[in-house]
């Protein structure tokens, strides 16, 4: 989780990612951020986010994004 | 048929032929040609009655078919429309208003409260109110009779390196010239169903707005949010049976790069035009593989030449070892000349600045003769009579096949997420912040990131928050780094090369 927060904070140093729960609905993240995140997650966690998981629910908070990463890692 | 000198003739012609067909639509609302015609004429009548004539009228609305209807209404009144990004920070809008001194702003329900927070005291009109005006055909006919084709129809603002945006003024004639040539290349017809991606406040949206009227086609305005979720985006294309798109490259690579084609393909798509930046070949090949029978067209052109000036219809195989996809050749009735450093015609294979000649040149920058005269200049190859060319600042060359290739920029202008940005404008904006001593922006061409280096006591978070108040979203740096000292060259200028090295080393350390 720590390195995910680091990735997010590098993109948006002005956001408190521990607290924010509506990153998509509040337009904190844009399409550029989504692409960057997916590529950074691939580098950091060695998982590929499948396209049908690229949905608002999975990107609205650091926690939900981290849950997605864990789920993808378990599925291997 | 009489000679066309007014873009509204497209609408006037089609409304008799196809009144009940859908003209502009979005995910939930549809407007027929008759509705577009009636509403635009009502707005035109209203603006006339309020005494606005031959003036800039700001259109400050969310991205929606009614925004296009408002554009047309402004032209009916003999005025020219100035679309403003609904999400643009107040500071930038105020700079634009300082340049324009507008008499009138048209809002919708979503922007009417925002406009009240600006330092603006002239008329504000609400779309829903003014669209109810009783149309006065007599008045509109009188206005139309007095139109000449060099009268302006819009101003769009583009990034300026000094920090002040430039308003590019375009007239009926350049838009008609562009739309005719463009539509021929794309083979637009009444079966065309456009899926619009580009914002309505940039010239790129001309590609859907006017060919739709000319041919009685249909244009869907795709909700911006869908461009974050590519699978939903392709599902939308299929649901609306969209067959033609003219998108910026990042919108296309998002679909291919994130693996949408493994799940779903755009079934109806047969014409894909792309522009704004170089299409990475690897991503292009994924598109080609997914849609082997579609026509792919690379487009190139600056806002100052109305829209697009060159095109290349992909007619051969490309591999990852190949050069970039060419920008090809100029549209009909446009000419490109490549000028070398000595302002002479570049020799075969020699790089030169891409300069544009033709009717498609816009009129220049609004209330800014100085900056206009720097780039709209006498053709240096012609000392016999006045002839204006536009100097793009882009460097190009011809390949062995005689196709034009884009190489680079002369200055610090970049393309990011489909937007044209002067890095100097970002630096200028952030330099004004209290606590900031010095700034320098560089651009990572590979990862497409804007990186801001700064010296001063402000925190990164404060810098970003400040930037959000001054710059549009697409100009906010993607990475911010604080420095103790700004590296300088021996001439005392900021050492951009060193900063770029620093950035690249920083990345390799992390990995």
Structure description:
The complex is a heterodimer of chains A (76) and B (511). With 76 residues, chain A is mainly α. Chain A has one domain: ACP-like (Non-ribosomal Peptide Synthetase Peptidyl Carrier Protein, Chain A), CATH 1.10.1200. Chain A is built from four helices and no strands. Chain A has helices at 2-11, 31-45, 56-59, 62-75. In chain A, helix 1 runs antiparallel to helix 2. The radius of gyration of chain A is 11 Å and the shape is globular. Chain A starts with a helix and ends with a helix. Chain B has 511 residues and is of the alpha/beta class. Chain B has three domains: 1-171, 3-Layer(aba) Sandwich (Rossmann fold), CATH 3.40.50.980; 222-359 and 367-411, Rossmann fold, CATH 3.40.50; 416-510, ANL, C-terminal domain (GMP Synthetase, Chain A, domain 3, 2-Layer Sandwich), CATH 3.30.300.30. Chain B contains 16 helices and 26 strands. Chain B has a five-stranded mixed beta sheet. In chain B, strands 16, 17, 19, 20 and 21 form a five-stranded antiparallel beta sheet that branches. In chain B, strands 2-1-10-9 form a four-stranded mixed beta sheet. In chain B, helix 9 (206-215) links the parallel strand 9 and strand 10. In chain B, helix 1 (8-17) crosses helix 9, helix 8 (172-186) crosses helix 9 and helix 11 packs across helix 12 (281-290). Chain B is globular. The N and C termini of chain B lie far apart (66 Å). The chains are: A mainly alpha (76), B alpha/beta (511). The A-B interface holds A 10-14, 24, 29-32, 34-36, 38, 43, 48-52, 54-56 and B 227-232, 250-251, 254, 257-260, 262-263, 417, 447-449, 459-462, 464-465, 468, 473, 478-480, 511.
């Amino acid at each position: 989780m720590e390195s995910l927060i680091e990735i997010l904070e590098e993109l948006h140093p002005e956001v408190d990612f521990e607290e924010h729960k509506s990153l998509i609905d509040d337009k904190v993240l844009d399409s550029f951020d989504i692409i960057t995140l997916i590529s950074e997650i691939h580098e950091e966690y060695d998982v590929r986010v499948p396209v049908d998981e690229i949905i608002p629910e999975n990107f609205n908070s650091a926690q939900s994004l981290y849950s997605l990463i864990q789920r993808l890692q378990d599925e291997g | 048929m009489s000679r066309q000198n007014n873009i509204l003739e497209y609408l006037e012609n089609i409304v008799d032929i196809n009144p009940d067909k859908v003209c502009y639509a979005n995910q939930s609302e549809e407007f027929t040609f008759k509705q577009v015609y009636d509403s635009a004429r009502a707005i035109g009548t209203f603006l006339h009655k309020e005494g606005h004539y031959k003036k800039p009228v700001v259109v400050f609305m969310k991205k929606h078919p009614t925004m296009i209807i408002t554009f047309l209404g402004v032209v009916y009144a003999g005025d020219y429309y100035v679309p403003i990004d609904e999400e643009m920070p107040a500071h930038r809008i105020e700079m634009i208003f300082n340049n324009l001194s507008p008499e009138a702003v048209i809002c919708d329900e979503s922007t009417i409260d925002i406009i009240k927070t600006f330092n603006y005291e002239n008329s504000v009109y609400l779309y829903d109110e003014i669209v109810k005006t009783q149309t006065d055909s007599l008045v509109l006919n009188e206005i139309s009779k007095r139109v000449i084709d060099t009268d302006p129809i819009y101003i769009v603002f583009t990034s300026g390196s000094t920090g002040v945006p430039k308003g590019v003024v375009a007239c009926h004639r350049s838009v008609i010239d562009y739309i005719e040539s463009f539509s021929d290349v794309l083979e637009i017809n009444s079966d065309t169903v456009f899926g619009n991606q580009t914002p309505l406040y940039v010239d790129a949206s001309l590609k859907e707005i006017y060919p739709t009227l000319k041919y009685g086609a249909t244009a869907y305005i795709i909700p911006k949010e869908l461009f974050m979720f590519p699978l939903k985006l392709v599902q939308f294309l299929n649901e609306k049976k969209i067959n033609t798109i003219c998108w910026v490259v990042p919108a296309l690579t998002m679909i291919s790069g994130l693996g949408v084609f493994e799940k779903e393909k755009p079934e109806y798509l047969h014409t894909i035009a792309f522009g704004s930046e170089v299409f990475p070949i690897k991503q292009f090949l994924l598109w080609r593989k997914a849609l082997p029978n579609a026509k792919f067209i690379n487009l190139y052109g600056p806002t100052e030449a109305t829209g697009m000036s060159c095109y290349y219809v992909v007619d051969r195989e490309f591999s990852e070892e190949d050069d970039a996809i060419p920008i090809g050749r100029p549209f009909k009735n446009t000419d490109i000349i490549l000028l070398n450093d000595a302002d002479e015609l570049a020799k075969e294979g020699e790089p030169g600045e891409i300069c544009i000649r033709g009717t498609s040149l816009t009129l220049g920058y609004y209330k800014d003769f100085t900056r206009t005269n720097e780039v709209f200049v006498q053709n240096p190859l012609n000392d016999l009579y006045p002839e204006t060319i536009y100097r793009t600042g882009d460097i190009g060359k011809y390949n062995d096949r005689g196709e034009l290739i884009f190489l680079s920029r002369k200055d610090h202008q970049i393309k990011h997420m489909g937007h044209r940005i002067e890095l100097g404008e970002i630096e200028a904006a952030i330099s004004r912040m209290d606590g900031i001593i010095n700034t320098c922006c560089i651009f990572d061409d590979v990862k497409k990131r804007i990186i801001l280096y700064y010296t001063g006591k402000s925190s990164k978070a404060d810098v970003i928050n400040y930037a959000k108040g001054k710059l549009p979203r697409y100009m906010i740096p993607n990475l911010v780094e604080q420095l103790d000292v700004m590296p300088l060259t021996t001439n005392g200028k900021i050492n951009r090369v060193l900063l770029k090295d620093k950035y690249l080393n920083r990345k390799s350390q992390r990995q």
